[in-house]
Amino acid sequence: MTSPRRNGAGSPALAPAASASRQRPFGLYIILILMTLQGLLGMLATSILGAGLLLLPGQAWSELALQPSELIEPFVLLVVVIVVVIGLWRYRAWGWYGMMLLLAYWMASDAIGYFTGKPDYGSMLLSVAMVFYLNQREVRELFAATNTSEVSA
Questions:
Q1: Residue 12 gets which letter from DSSP?
Q2: pTM, whole model, 2 decimals?
Q3: Is 7 a member of any domain?
Q4: What is the pLDDT of residues 43-99, one digit of tens each?
Q5: Which residues on adjacent β-strands are paired with residue 12?
Q6: How far is it, in rounded angstroms, from Cα 116 to Cα 111?
Q7: φ, ψ for residue 12 (rounded to 5)?
Q8: Where are the alpha helices (DSSP H) in the chain?
Q9: Is 6 in a helix, a strand, or coil?
Q10: Phi-psi bin for 53: left (phi > 0), alpha (psi -120 to 50), beta?
């Protein structure tokens, strides 16, 4: 077994901070995988729905009672999820803030659903767990360290 390298003062020498690789926490992997899957499945569903709606005659549109404007919100939300996931994968501070805003949106939607008699307890629990996890010190420091190293470099 080797002993730690010592500097002149007798204390262990510290490795340079730039050479230390950041270890992504397991919980962050889970969030990233879930969000990536949500984005990929959303893109698949949007493309299938879009292709299906393009092939439907006008009468089918009226039978579905779907307005094209009703598809805008899910599409914009899908684009935002994809951008936020890219920011989280790359340790960008704006990705963390974007995720917090997405979670706030989803929690508000869950609260509205709860008070209108359509609660989604699974979504509520997952949103609260992600907010608590992403606000842990070690996770916040991952994104803060990236932000400060970009500014100083």
A1: B
A2: 0.69
A3: no
A4: 888 777 777 767 766 666 666 666 667 777 888 888 899 999 999 989 999 999 999
A5: 6
A6: 9
A7: -60, 140
A8: 26-55, 58-64, 72-89, 93-115, 121-134, 137-152
A9: strand
A10: alpha
- Angle at the Cα of 140 from the Cα atoms of 139 and 146, rounded to 5 degrees: 100
The domain in which residue 121 lies consists of 27-152
Which tokens is 14 given?
């510290």
Residue whose C-alpha is closest to residue 77's, from 53, 54, 56, 98: 98
Res 68: pLDDT: 66
- Whether 55 and 109 have beta carbons less than 8 Å apart is answered as no
In angstroms, rounded to a whole number, what is the distance separating the alpha carbons of residues 143 and 87? 10
Q: Is residue 73 a part of any domain in this protein?
A: yes
Q: Which residues pair with 6 in a beta bridge?
A: 12
Overall domain count for the chain: 1
